Amino acid sequence: MAADEKSSLSPMELDEAKARELEEQFDSEIRFRPLAPLASRLVGTLLVALSIFHYYTAGFGLLPEMIHRGIHLSFVLGLVFLVFPFTRRGYDQPATSSLLRPLGISIIDWFLAIGAVVAVLHVPLIPLDDLAFRVGNPTTTDVVLGGLLIVVLLEATRRSVGWPLPIIALIFMAYAIYGPSMPGILVHPGASISQLVDHLYLTTQGIYGIALGVVATYVFHFVLFGVFATRIGLGQLFLDCAAWVAGRFAGGPAKVSIFGSALFGMISGSSVANTVTVGSLTIPAMKRLGYKPHFAAAVEAASSTGGQIMPPIMGAAAFLMIEFLNLPYTTIILAAIVPAFMHFFGVLIQVHFEAKRTGLRGMTPEEMPDLKAAFKRDWPAVIPLVALLVVLLSGYTPYLAAFWGITLCVLVGLLNPRKRMSIAEVFESLRDGAKYALAVGAAAATVGIIVGVVTLTGVGFKISYIVTSTAAQLAGWFEAFIPAALVGPQALTLLFTLIMTGIVCILMGCGIPTTANYIIMATIAAPTLGLLGVEQIVAHFFVFYYGVLADITPPVALAAYAAAGMAGSDPFRAGNTAFRLGLGKVLVPFVFVFSPSLLLVTSNFTWSAFAIAFIGCVVGITCLGAALSGFLLVRTKFWENILLIFAAILFVVPEVYSSLLGAALIVPVLIRHVLGMRRAPVPG
């Protein structure tokens, strides 16, 4: 290996500026159009103001619900029209000013931004007593401004996250209006345009609903904390720890990618941010050791999606659970521990088998970081994370914990002589943290439209009935072929309901972001599972876990496409491979449902049930990973892959007899592989 390659691996130095540049290049949700200098300063000032607003209210008290959400959404929508162009060609358009393009931004976009701010702030400025009277009796001004907000919101969402989510919202609104024309059970009395706007605009069950509230109350603060924590060196320390733990083993950089993504995911709930930060170091290292570019990209993307389910700072969906389930965040964190472990274990086992199959080596001692020196340099960066956890576990609100975490990040950054932040860098962090809020804020408000239609029409219960009745019918067909002692009709109905729900989650993930996916499925699918006796937290974790696959589900697959761009590989091939790597733990959510003890916080938790489910999951994921990779102890044959897949399914059924049957299926595979190893030892 050349000397310059060694220096790039020893230690794995994180170039934060390069990581931010890569993220802006590959993440369409924070990629802004070219701005003239004055417009750039204006946008930067507004972004910093948004961060300061949220930082202040987190520490010194939130504003009344409608006002707080209104201020947040007015900033978000106003900025969206200033930074996201009407078409993709706008990203290549020079930022030149003219009469029709003041400060290099189309005059139409200026009018849209102003109209959005006026429409958003109209409701919070209505006195509370007057607002209560106008719900159900909207004035003409309410209807006009509400209609304007719906239009500009859909356009802002289209610009920032794409077409699919606005199209879904339009379909739901059409359903609300044309209810009498719907077929069968989907028929309902229908709502006039005025009634629909009233419900979506003047109440907290629509645009100003839970989704927007969670983003404005929890998500923003933790994203901002993650930005600051990375700037003061915590991300670099995590990467050094990951390299020290995993780098020496077969396929070292790929395993560093997994461990690094897991650790970095503790402070970043963004799949793309995780991908470009960790991947900027691990993807080139993987390619140098012999991994094909598309596989290197897939490993990083599949690993990085786990950041959304990695405690303590998970993706936006985890904070939504707080409101949906009315549970403390500490309960959500505890419930997420095993799912997060299973996610990373599922990717790790396939990477390990791939490394063994292709004979890829680990990192040499010269390529490994000096862990002692890393801690000596960056140990102060751990202080804010520890403080955040202490405040959280003490029972205080998540946003107060984030407030103290951010405060200590700034203090550490300003006072740490080994990695000092300047005042300018503090403001840059405030600006960059707010960038993440724009797309997710617009998407959350648009999802509020969908949720509002569900509450207005009751379509959620109708869909639940359709799904459960279809599942019962399928169960009746299969009941004749499955022994009653193995699984009963009720369990079969639940199984088919889970399969249909999982498929819909994955298909939804093909077009919309994970947060929007979770909200929609939690509104529609989670009640379906509740009808079959599944605990609420279990049902929500089921759709949450599958929703995470959205960032590695083609054709959207933002994390996979970002990694592919860095690896120089075909994006679609990288996305398909990342999806395959993510399938190693696709069986795990079924275990949540049939053995809720795996989530640690369910009402019927027992350690014996947990042990059976946990061991079964680990063995099942290993079997499935071996079948998907084509390697266990030696290369697998086709008939062995079939046996391993069936064994994997049996192992995740939380019953001793099914595990024994699964063990019996893999015995012939193990015998052949042990004999094969004796004849031809595997390199690496």
UniProtKB/TrEMBL annotation:
It comes from Paramesorhizobium deserti. GO terms for cellular component: plasma membrane. It is a multi-pass membrane protein. The chain crosses the membrane at residues 38-58, 70-87, 99-123, 135-154, 161-178, 206-229, 295-320, 332-353, 374-393, 436-461, 481-507, 519-546, 552-569, 581-601, 607-634, 641-671. Its main location: membrane. Part of the tripartite ATP-independent periplasmic (TRAP) transport system. This is C4-dicarboxylate ABC transporter permease. PANTHER family: BLL3936 PROTEIN. Keywords: Cell inner membrane, Cell membrane, Membrane, Transmembrane, Transmembrane helix, Transport. GO terms for molecular function: transmembrane transporter activity. Residues 149-605 form the TRAP C4-dicarboxylate transport system permease DctM subunit domain. It is found in: Cell inner membrane.
